[in-house]
Amino acid sequence: xxxxxxxxxxxxxxxxxxxxxxxxxxxxxxxxxxxxxxxxxxxxxxxxxxxxxxxxxxxxxxxxxxxxxx
Length: 70
Description:
The structure is a single chain. This protein is mainly alpha-helical. The protein is built from 3 helices and no strands. Helix 2 (15-31) crosses helix 3 (41-68). The model has no long low-confidence stretch (mean pLDDT 79).
């Protein structure tokens, strides 16, 4: 995921910021009961990867929009 962000050319977000945002999303989702399927380490890892990938895609889209207006 971090490689995807790095491959976009300009630095969109600090790697640590991405990690913080992924865990914030995880904790909000757990609190809201959106992830009842988390019963083991593999499911947690899969969920964290999915959240991180989506964040990377969102960042890329924002970057494309910004570039279109420059």
